Amino acid sequence: MKGHATPPSPSAMRIENGLSVDVEEWFQVGAFERVIDKADWPGLQSRVEANTGAVLDLFAETGAKATFFTLGWVAERAPRLLQRIVAAGHEIASHGVDHQRVFTMTAAQFRADLRRARAALEDASGVAVTGYRAPSFSIDTRTPWAHQVLAEEGYAYSSSVAPVRHDHYGWPDAPRFAFRPVAGADLVELPVTVARIGNRHLATGGGFFRLFPSALTNWAVRQVNAEERPAIFYFHPWEVDPGQPRVANAPLKSKLRHYSRLGAMAGKLRHLVAGHAWGRIDAIAAREAARLG
Ligand SMILES: [Zn+2]
Fold first, then answer.
1. What are the φ and ψ backbone dihedral angles of 195, each rounded to 5 degrees?
2. pLDDT tens per residue, the chain (293 residues)?
3. How much distance in Å is there from the Cα of 114 to the middle of ligand 1?
4. Which contacts qualify for 87-90: CB closer than 8 Å, 24 or more apart?
5. DSSP letter assigned to residue 179
6. What's the gap in Å between 70 CA and the centre of ligand 1?
7. Strand, coil or helix: what is 120?
8. What's 5's DSSP letter?
9. Where are the domains of the chain?
10. Superfamily of domain 18-292
């Protein structure tokens, strides 16, 4: 109707959610750490450039921007991959040097790991790194010093907490949404999104997204956005690679988790990425920091 102001529809005010990729090789996962020695990594077939390339192509289809939490180990060996990520408008952030979980380190070892990873990532990419994600969401009640170290090292944000109960990780009582973990510091923690079903929290990214119907994660993103908060979603490049070598001597449970539904992942991701608004986590962290004041 002419002259009549129509309020914008809810879909026009879509909340931008955080899209993230934890850039590591198929053999650099917690599930295989007891059967694949770190000393053997350099001799294993590298697939991270090809797999991350497929992820970049997938994001380019929709124009979605994302954060790539990358291992220093990968940056040292595949600097061109990091340059390609940056050229496509995505963010490079840190995932540590070699996937050592934070709760296995001392505060001093954690600081050294942060510094070595950041130097490798910045050397390879040519851009400043301001974000960090702990390997296997390993910042929890066992590491009360970890956020303090991140703040002292000048990080703007961390996305290292999973507010869930899980056999390998989790800090069930952590806040679901952005918070300031260190009093008096600017550092913001952006926990990975969990679905809330009654009193239960369910993970929504990575293996959960791959193994369960994507409707669950879609629903969780809408649930979080209905609370006017951004969702934080993650997955790994190896999850779009059905042709990766199989680790025969891994525990059965690990093998079931790691190898199931790899062929379905790209299609599910396409659907998820097209169905919501997505962006880099540094931008979302800045918005959440402004909101927290
Ligand atoms: Zn990881």
1. -85, 140
2. 444 444 444 543 589 999 999 999 999 998 898 899 999 999 999 999 999 999 999 999 999 999 999 999 999 999 999 999 999 999 999 999 999 999 999 999 999 999 999 999 999 999 999 999 999 999 999 999 999 999 999 999 999 999 988 777 788 889 999 999 999 999 999 999 998 888 888 888 888 899 999 999 999 999 999 999 999 999 999 999 999 999 988 998 888 889 999 999 999 999 999 999 999 999 999 999 999 99
3. 15
4. 88/56, 88/59, 88/60, 89/65, 90/56, 90/59, 90/65, 90/66, 90/280
5. B
6. 8
7. helix
8. P
9. 18-292
10. Glycoside hydrolase/deacetylase (3.20.20.370)
Q: What is the whole-number distance in angstroms between the Cα of residue 6 and the centre of ligand 1?
A: 46
Q: How far is the CA of 209 from the centre of ligand 1 (A)?
A: 15
Q: Say if pTM beats, i.e. exceeds, 0.90.
A: yes
Distance 130 CA to ligand 1 centre (A): 18
Q: How far is the CA of 238 from the centre of ligand 1 (A)?
A: 11
Distance in Å, CA 4 to ligand 1 centroid: 52
Distance (Å) from CA 293 to ligand 1 centroid:
31
